[in-house]
Design brief:
Radius of gyration: 28 Å
Distance between the termini: 109 Å
Structural class: mainly alpha
Strand order of the largest sheet: 1-2
Strand content: under 5%
Largest sheet: 2 strands, antiparallel
Protein name: SEC14 and spectrin domain containing 1
Order of helices and strands: HHHHHEEHH
Number of strands: 2
Number of domains: 1
CATH class: Mainly Alpha
Shape: rod-shaped
Number of helices: 7
Length: 220
């Protein structure tokens, strides 16, 4: 009987040791998940800044961004699962986790920052798609649809979207704690803005040519 009791005690201690090892591993991996998510946020803000030179390229960028978000979502979910596992293990071991109390708020904070930045990225890309699509329709020669090209509202819409996009580039991402972060560097922002302005100038030139076709004839 004593031998059985001793074996039971050994088994219990062995199980507790295994659970302790699992707990430490979960805590370490959860902290790593936070670091990974922070790195993805950093990459989003510093390298995911281009808006594309045309509608097709911008659509590709949007699709790539959605896949990038899927990776971040998986990383966040992985961190949450690990932290839930630490809670269960701590309850079984009747102990307090060394890091889950600190890691969970960090994980949620970084994820919130990522989702805010991601939504802003999507909004800018969708605006760029609308801008490029309308610009391409105007700039392409469509003699069979002269009334479509000559629609003043289309020109006004392109100008409005272009100006909104330029304004959007100068606005930082604002997090719940009040801190701000910009996409890319000032030179990145200037390069993107310059391309949008160049497209707007071409559209404006097209508008002038349609208003005064005699100018084109005289020039040619």
């Amino acid at each position: 009987l004593i031998d059985l009791q001793c074996e039971d005690m050994v088994d219990v201690r062995r199980l507790k040791m295994l659970q302790m090892v699992q707990l430490f591993k979960c805590e370490e991996d959860a902290a790593q998940a936070v670091e990974w998510l922070s790195e993805l946020l950093d990459a989003l803000l510093k390298t995911h800044i281009r808006l594309g030179d045309d509608a097709q390229e911008t659509k590709v960028l949007l699709e790539k961004h959605r896949k990038f978000v899927d990776v971040a979502q998986s990383t966040y979910d992985y961190g949450r699962q690990l932290l839930q596992a630490t809670v269960v293990l701590c309850q079984s071991l009747r102990c307090t986790s060394r890091s889950s109390g600190d890691t969970l708020p960090r994980l949620n904070r970084v994820w919130k920052q990522f989702t805010i930045a991601s939504e802003e990225r999507v909004h800018r890309l969708e605006m760029a798609i609308a801008f490029h699509s309308n610009t391409e329709k105007i700039l392409q020669d469509c003699p069979e649809e002269p009334e479509a090209i000559n629609d003043e509202e289309q020109f006004d819409e392109i100008e409005a979207v272009g100006k909104s996009l330029l304004d959007r580039l100068t606005v930082p991402v604002v997090y719940p704690d009040g801190t701000e972060q910009y996409f890319g560097s000032p030179s990145d922002m200037a390069s993107t803005a310059e391309h949008i302005r160049d497209r707007m100038k071409l559209v404006n030139l097209k508008r002038q040519q349609l208003r005064h076709p005699e100018m084109v004839t005289t020039e040619s």
